[in-house]
Design brief:
There is one protein chain. This protein has ten helices and 22 strands. It is α+β, with helices and mostly antiparallel strands. Strands 1, 2, 3, 4, 5, 6 and 7 form a seven-stranded antiparallel sheet that branches. Helix 1 runs parallel beside helix 2 and helix 3 runs parallel beside helix 4. The longest helix is centred in the N-terminal third of the chain and has 17 residues. The chain starts with a helix and ends with a strand. The model has no long low-confidence stretch (mean pLDDT 96).
């Protein structure tokens, strides 16, 4: 017997008596996390979670409540709390908030492939990540951060329109950040992996790359202040896309908080910049066959040859702003409905890395943005000020690592100044899928 469905039908019937509509989002999963330190098992954690969030629509009003107890009594109590919250809010207008009706959803093969992997094999991956780093090079002093995770998650949505759908996914991830020391120079850098099959884990490749990065940064020099052509590494450009993503929400536009307001159909960035919201890209971490209202996922072209083609919408804002519905509703069981992208995928270019760094006499390759988004970015203006490190190239040859410099400018100006794109994407596991990006000379504050 499907207890969840039976309980929800009782809630839905109560909602009809209350002249309301109700939606229930259930999300949860299981994660095993393993970490080693100094060649000893330091952490072993197994967690399980399951949370139900109810959204009640009463005409133009919405209310929310959530619970970790999925019994009939608890869910009915949570429904009443959400209904009360809906009745007490003040609606901006009298337009009824719509609710998704049942529709076919595209099957996504390869998302959920649970495997019977012995625990000792998982522990061995975590152990080898640290031990192999330590034995790789005498300059590796320690591995401050390393770990392995086996994760399974699920999401189910039911509503009073008769919708009931679910999807599951599982994946394995890990990381290693060795600390290298030579003379007075000490540097930490690292590498990670994200795979959907245990057999695809390549510990040696992850270790080799993590150690290479840490060693390469030893002896970094301060960079002189000036203007430099910049190659933003494909591992770091996702932060730029994260800055842009908030402006792409129709809700943000409607609230007057988007720098892209009024610019649909206009060429506002470099023609090299092409961006698609693709929830079906299985190498990305934000795959989803349906959004958090239950609407079937779809690809959405956001920028084409530098032209802004679409904003992202959920059902409410598509109706409110008379825009195409892009199935971009986003929420957790404990939050209110919002709008966000799935996997943002940039188009690649045709240039390899050596071509990018030969384009100018001096090119700064940024391999690390060292501060968080909130301290580096002012969303109201788009201004950025990003402490960074990387490598300086002269006439296509690496001079050496550089550090303690700040890249300043504006995120939209940066996108306007994209000159060329690399021909390789960043590694799987990010919801922002990007190549290396060459940007015309920009201001850099250094020594």
């Amino acid at each position: 017997m499907d207890t969840i469905k039976a309980n929800f039908q009782k809630i839905s019937e109560q909602a009809r008596q209350d002249h309301a509509k109700v939606e229930m989002l259930i999300a949860g999963g299981e994660t095993i996390s393993i970490g080693f330190s100094k060649k000893k098992l330091e952490s072993f954690e197994s967690t399980q979670s399951q949370v139900a969030g109810l959204r009640v629509i009463a005409g133009a009003k919405q209310g929310y409540a959530y619970t970790e107890n999925l019994s009939e009594e608890s869910l009915l109590r949570t429904y009443r709390e959400a209904l009360n919250n809906a009745q007490t809010v003040r609606a901006a207008n009298n337009t009824e908030v719509p609710m998704v009706k049942p529709q076919p959803v595209q099957a996504m093969d390869g998302l959920f492939k649970p495997q019977e992997v012995p625990m000792e094999q998982k522990i061995a991956v975590a152990r080898d990540l640290e031990e192999k780093c330590l034995s790789k090079d005498a300059r590796i002093q320690s591995v401050p951060y390393s770990g392995f995770s086996d994760s399974l998650s699920f999401k189910r949505i039911l509503n009073s329109e008769g919708l009931d759908q679910e999807f599951k996914q599982n994946y394995y991830s890990g990381y290693v950040y060795p600390l290298a020391k030579e003379g007075d120079s000490t540097k930490t850098s690292g590498e990670g992996f994200f795979v959907r099959s245990f057999g695809d884990i390549k510990v040696d490749e992850v270790v080799d790359e993590g150690v290479r990065k840490a060693l390469a940064n030893l002896g970094a020099q301060k960079l002189s202040t000036g203007k430099y052509a910049v190659v933003i590494d494909r591992s770091q450009f996702p932060m730029i896309l994260q800055m842009l993503s908030s402006y792409l929400s129709a809700k943000t536009v409607h609230q007057g908080k988007s720098l892209l307001e009024g610019k649909l159909g206009q060429k506002i960035v470099s023609e090299k910049f092409q961006l698609v919201d693709n929830p079906f890209e299985i190498t990305g971490s934000a795959v989803r066959p349906f959004d958090d209202e239950g609407a079937p996922s779809q690809k959405t072209v956001l920028f084409e040859n530098g032209v802004l083609k679409n904003f992202l919408t959920n059902l409410e804002y598509a109706q409110k702003m008379k825009l195409p519905h892009t199935a971009s509703a986003s929420r957790s069981p404990a939050s209110e409905l919002d709008i966000s992208p799935s996997n943002l995928v940039m188009a690649k270019g045709s240039a390899d890395f050596s071509e990018l760094v030969r384009r100018y006499d001096k090119v700064l390759h940024i391999t690390e943005f060292e501060a968080g988004l909130h301290s580096s970015f002012k969303s109201s203006t788009g201004d950025i000020s990003m402490p960074s490190s990387g490598f300086l190239y002269e006439n296509g040859k690496c001079v050496g690592p550089v550090e303690q410099f700040v890249v300043a400018g504006n995120v939209l100006e940066l996108l306007q100044n994209i000159e060329e794109l690399g021909n390789e994407y960043n590694k799987p596991g990010s919801s922002k899928i990007c190549p290396d990006v060459l940007v015309k000379p920009m201001s850099v504050a250094g020594a």
